[in-house]
Design a protein that fits this description.
The protein is of the alpha/beta class and 403 residues long. The chain folds into 3 domains: 12-78, Archaeosine Trna-guanine Transglycosylase, Chain: A, domain 4, CATH 2.30.130; 83-186, Transcription Regulator spoIIAA (2-Layer Sandwich); 192-402, Vaccinia Virus protein VP39 (Rossmann fold), CATH 3.40.50.150. The protein contains 10 helices and 20 strands. Strand 15, helix 7 and strand 16 (282-285) form a beta-alpha-beta unit. Helix 5 crosses helix 6 (243-251) and helix 9 (319-334) packs across helix 10 (353-366). It starts with 16 loop residues before the first strand and ends with a strand.
Length: 403
Amino acid sequence: MPLPTPPPSLAARVRPWVQLDYFSYHPQVYSRMIGSASEDARPGDLVAVYDKNGQRFGAGFFNPAAKVPLRVLHHGQDAVDETFLEGLLDRACDLRTKIPGLADPALTDAYRVISSDADSLSGLIVDRYGDTLCVEIHSLGVHKRIAKWLPRLHARLGTKRATVRVDPEIARIERIVGPAESGDAPPAVKIREHGVRLEVDFASGHKTGFFCDQRENRKMLGEWVKQIGPKARVADLCCYTGGFSLAAKMLGGAEDVTGVDLDEKSIEQAKRNANLNQARINWVHTDAFMWIRQMLLNKSRWDVIVLDPPKFVFDKDDVEGRLKYRDLNGLAIQLANPGALFLTCSCSGQISEEEFTEIVIAAAHHRGRKLQFLARTGAGPDHPVMSNCPESRYLKALWARVW
């Protein structure tokens, strides 16, 4: 039996380097898992990564002061340089051009181009809205390179403008110096999605301004509503800027659609989106919990209920967030007519699909209702999931009839 290859000496290692103390295939490596680093490893550097035995293990971005000091972009013993990173950009763009529907601007011109760890580019989110890219940066390594990367992305995608964002808290943690937002994008742009026109407001919108991850679910809702019929009453709870409401109206043909959200700016945006499509929708600016309780007192019932709340659970031990999901789902289920379609979603990555299903079932049974599950879906294929980072499958969507 041949003897194992001895690890290279410190002097023979590729610099700058970081050595792990514990084995992990996860792209995000925390301080307790790092053993040492070469003295020339600087914040934001692309470093060679060695395992605890001193063997070449991969490469990634290093930032010793950050909450996530090492973001591994590649696993393997081959050499990695800046050209390799540009190849990761190309690989992400190649995938999006092969996804059915995304390559056809008549169907949509809005989708995710780069999804951080899911595209081996940890700390980088890029969404396309028409000819504009909206970029979210979560790591110093990305921040140092984005100015060089943007022209390459524009050339690959045919886009022209970009807005680049760094959340102030992320900037503090990563020690990123510079403006929170930069670029040459306008305050808002208009997009198309399955025949529905929408405006994306970069100034007031959440995340990158729009939730492309629900694109296929919005289309599916429209198809279900169309089958139920135009007389179906549709309630879109936590409607944000009205994506599901407009799908029910424009794709499903529903005559009676109500969208509810606590965020005043989101409701105003939803109204503008409805105007773009000349659609009459009842918009209600209020808390979903309060609105449901009032509807129950009014004995109002609905044939289609969509529940897509903001992220409630922020870590694995967040009991309060889990109770919010149970309470809100339990209230919403009470609004359902017998046989009503119920679409309920969670964007909390710390909750698995199995746990979310258990929460929803408990909420229904506690209220004396049963659920007939029809489908379990999530984000579209422009939001892929890497096997070594399963929590990036954050979006869960359960489809059921309520009995």
